[in-house]
Amino acid sequence: MSEKKKLLLTGASGFLGWNICCRASEEWDIHGIYFNHPISFSGVNFLKADITHYKAVRNLIKAICPQVVMHTAALSDPNFCALNPDKSRAINLQASLNLAGLCADRQIPLVFTSSDLIFDGKHPPYREEDPPCPINLYGEHKAMAEEGMRVRNPEVVICRLPLMFGDSGPAAQSFLQPLLRAIKEGRELRLFVDEFRTPLSGSAAVEGLFLALKKAKGILHLGGREPISRYRLALIVAELLGVDGARLIPCKQTDIVMPALRPTNVSLDIQRALSLGFVPPPLREDLQDAVILSLRTISPLSSGPIPD
What we know:
The protein is an alpha/beta fold. It folds into 2 domains: about 5-165 and about 200-220, 3-Layer(aba) Sandwich (Rossmann fold), CATH 3.40.50.720; about 170-200 and about 225-265 and about 285-295, UDP-galactose 4-epimerase, domain 1 (Alpha-Beta Complex), CATH 3.90.25.10. The chain contains 10 helices and 13 strands. The strands form 4 sheets. The protein has a 7-stranded parallel β-sheet with strand order 3-2-1-4-5-6-11, sandwiched between helices. It has a two-stranded parallel ribbon with strand order 7-10. A two-stranded parallel ribbon has the order 8-13. The protein is globular and about 55 Å long. Mean pLDDT is about 95; it is low at about 300-305.
């Protein structure tokens, strides 16, 4: 039996990192970096480290000697980034540039997860060749990271991801978990009817990331098959739960004042990924699986804002 290849994973306690640990630990020897939220998963070696400290990351790479690095760590809430620009720059931009250089120096394959929010939402669906045009600081830092990483490491594979949902693990959550709690508890939710994305489950995203590692070069869009608003998405979730009369209130972006501007339609064109063999499930099927799994794990006492 061949020895597992070593994978160094940043953001291991986050939503996407947790899904990678769950779905890849049997095939990969995963060394997962976390910062604030210690977690455990059988077969994964979790390491506490601050990825904004260049020497700490350099020493980890030297000690582990990974065959692959997946960089999923990010501050992904646009509103938080708008209010904390220095933190956003340090994590979303500078740490990414450092990793690109370190991997280039050692010829280690690197996969970086970017976002559909690097676009302004005016000309969907967006292809890989379309120029970034962010309208908030989070999107700006992600776009700057993409450009700078490609300069430092031309071999980096950049996967742009949409809104995601599914199993969130013990230390993170997707937008699905608080949505489920709110619907089940009968709480009122205001949801945008004029913001469209191409959402994807965490499990499907992981399949896409490892496909990109094997087959992709440059930039790859990994999204779902169907552009949809948050309001329409919540209606499907309520239907899957069998809840009649869920208190879902349609609203527009202009109805809610937020620190960060939001694009109206950042739907991703995924034709390139499909040509490589990416097979995202139909949205309703993907949501149904995620709802069933999440109902087994969410705490009924926990609530809070719905993440981006």
